Amino acid sequence: MATHDFSATRLFLDAALAEGLPVAATPVQANYLLNVLRLSQDDRVLVFNGRDGEWSARLDKPAKKKLDLVPERRTRAQSASADLHYLFAPLKHARLDYMVQKAVEMGAGTLQPVMTQHVQASRLNTDRMRANAIEAAEQCGILTLPDCREPVRLEALLSGWDADRRLFFCDEREDAQSPVETLRATAPGPLALLVGPEGGFSASERAMLKARPFVTVLSLGPRILRADTAAVAALALVQATLGDWTAPR
Ligand code: SAM
């Protein structure tokens, strides 16, 4: 069972966390805590920064327009970040926001946008991606922030690939072999997952991927899934057969 307090409000603070060391809330955080959640002086929330574990912090209002969060007690020791890499062709705004948040909830530790021939969104706002990752991390109880990387072209990604990391290529054209059998046949080791754009991969991209020894093709069944659906389905399969849904927590 998860070891953290689901009911408590959790905030990511981009600052050092230590007992008694006040951290100024950002204006957005202050508005959320004071005006949306209606919290007040001496109420407590949980805070984390990705390095110093999770802390119970007290709200302190030393001045009218100032809100500090004062860590008082460490509630969880810092854990290692997830090693699962999620690679994706950027989608249009709302679907991309959704896909980034679901990837974080499903345990992706690295988010790598990949530019392919049929990608819908030619640019990706990495600040927006990071903000979505932070929101998901606060909600789902993890203690680290995923590594949100800058977009790379598929060719460059494959040419610089660490061959020790198995790359599962979600290919809707693949004969519908059971993904569970495919995953169970995989040797233990670092993993990555690639989901294509709404327009799918081109024939040359598919050939380029299949030619790599570190690539395993993964079918997600007989129907064509939207890219954001494929993300959740594929991550669930990986976590349930090879990932942290199998290990005791
Ligand atoms: N090219 C597809 C078509 O013909 O309509 C659309 C691609 S699909 C919307 C977006 C991505 O989700 C695909 O590139 C693939 O990575 C993944 N995907 C969707 N359905 C899949 C399936 N049944 N098996 C494996 N991957 C799938």
Mean pLDDT over all positions: 93
Strand segment tally: 12
**Percentage of residues assigned to helices:** 25-40%
Order of helices and strands: EEHEEEEHEHEEHEHEHEH
What is the number of helices? 7
What CATH first level of the largest domain would be assigned?
Alpha Beta
Oligomer: single chain
Q: What is the rounded Rg?
A: 20 Å
When the domains are counted, the total is 2
Which CATH architecture of the largest domain would you pick?
3-Layer(aba) Sandwich
**Alpha carbon gap, first and last residue:** 7 Å
Provide the low-confidence segments as ranges: none
* CATH topological fold name of the largest domain: Alpha/beta knot
Describe the structure.
By secondary structure, the protein is of the alpha/beta class. It folds into two domains: 10-76, Beta Barrel (Ribosomal Protein L25, Chain P); 84-241, SPOUT methyltransferase, trefoil knot domain (Alpha/beta knot, 3-Layer(aba) Sandwich). Helix content is 29%, strand content 24%. The protein contains seven helices and twelve strands. The protein has helices spanning 27-36, 93-105, 126-140, 154-159, 179-184, 203-210, 227-241, and strands at residues 10-12, 23-24, 44-48, 54-63, 66-76, 85-88, 110-115, 147-148, 152-153, 166-170, 191-195, 215-218. The strands form two sheets. Strands 6, 7, 8, 9, 10, 11 and 12 form a seven-stranded parallel sheet that branches. The chain is elongated, with a radius of gyration of 20 Å. The model has no long low-confidence stretch (mean pLDDT 93). Bound molecules: S-adenosylmethionine (SAM). S-adenosylmethionine is lined by residues 170-172, 195-196, 198, 200-201, 219-221, 223-227, 230.
